[in-house]
Amino acid sequence: MSYQQIKYQQSNYQQVKIMGILNVTPDSFSDGGKFSHFDSALKQVESMIEHGVDIIDIGGESTRPGAVDVSEQDELTRVIPLLKAIKENFTVQVSIDTSKTEVMEQSITYGADIINDVRALQNEGCLAVLAQCDIPVCLMHMQGMPRTMQTKPEYTNIITDIKDFFNERIIACEDAGIAKSRLILDPGFGFGKTLEQNYQLLAQLAQFHSIGLPLLSGTSRKSMIGNLLNREVTERLAGSVTTAIIAMQQGAEIIRVHDVKETVDALKILQAVAQPFEE
Ligand code: 9MG
N or C: where does the chain have the smaller number of CB atoms within 10 Å of the terminal CB? Predict the structure, then answer.
């Protein structure tokens, strides 16, 4: 089903969850490292909760195009104290955006609710770590690696290529002892995709429902918005909310965003028009 074919979505959008982004890297691409300090990060969490966030996604490694690798120790230092503080002070769900086994292990120990891995558990040891617990895990598609992924992304058919990747990762998870029911799939907007490919993916996101797992969509403030609209990162709110709405209409269940308040407002409007009305 393509976006053009969707007239009235069956969903009433009650299942949609908003995931708020909390980057704790000095070079986080759209907040310029503003929340790299502990106290301001906690204030940001408080504000996102006030505005209706469901999940906070903490990331200690920048995955923006061209980003350099971060050491395990640096990532642990950025992520774990914050995870502990959120768990001590709030009841919100916390997702940890990491591809490192040690960060996954410690995060699980300190109460992480979801592991969000942009490398889809392909790093050595990750499958085994996740097999030892029972929390959900998001498997994201990426062509290449962050340093080089935008060089020349190529697909035979972007939808079927990504579906093949998901099916291969689902089998790898099941073989390692991770139940399929724990998995969330994410096509990875901006991760090894051209501008046109990103919009093709967004238009056809609903195609991935045939795999039978929840979908996560993350377009917030990305270049696919900035390059189409010719907008700097600080001017991408309208584009971010619009792409979030389209993802929800395509049935995505988790929407990863910077602008929680505005996205929650948009979701409430979708929910209101999805209510049955008397004729
Ligand atoms: C960490 N991160 C950055 N962008 C992302 C996206 O689109 N999806 C997921 N799951 N994680 C992302």
Answer: C
Q: Could you give the CA distance from residue 165 to residue 185 in angstroms, rounded to a whole number?
A: 10
Query: 3-state class of 246 per DSSP?
Result: helix
Mutate to test the pocket of ligand 1, among 25, 61, 116 (most ligand atoms within 8 A of CB): 116
Query: 220 in the Ramachandran plot: left (φ > 0), alpha (ψ -120 to 50) or beta?
Result: beta
- Dist CA 44 CA 53 (whole Å): 11
pLDDT for 276 equals 79
Q: Within its chain, how far is the Cα of 209 from the centroid?
A: 17
* CB 116 less than 6 A from any atom of ligand 1: yes
H or E element at residue 142: none
pLDDT interval class at 29 (50, 70, 90): very low
Q: Is ligand 1 within 6 A of the CB of residue 256?
A: yes
- Give how far Cα 19 sits from Cα of 95, 143, 210, Å: 9, 23, 23
Give start and end residues of each alpha helix (H) in 51-132. 72-89, 101-109, 126-131
Instruction: Residue 228: name the closest of 185, 197, 259 by CA.
Output: 197
Q: Which atom of ligand 1 approaches the CA of 219 most closely?
A: 7
Average pLDDT, stretch 43-63?
95
Atom index in ligand 1 nearest the CA of residue 190 equals 7
Q: pTM here?
A: 0.93
186 CB under 6 A from ligand 1?
yes
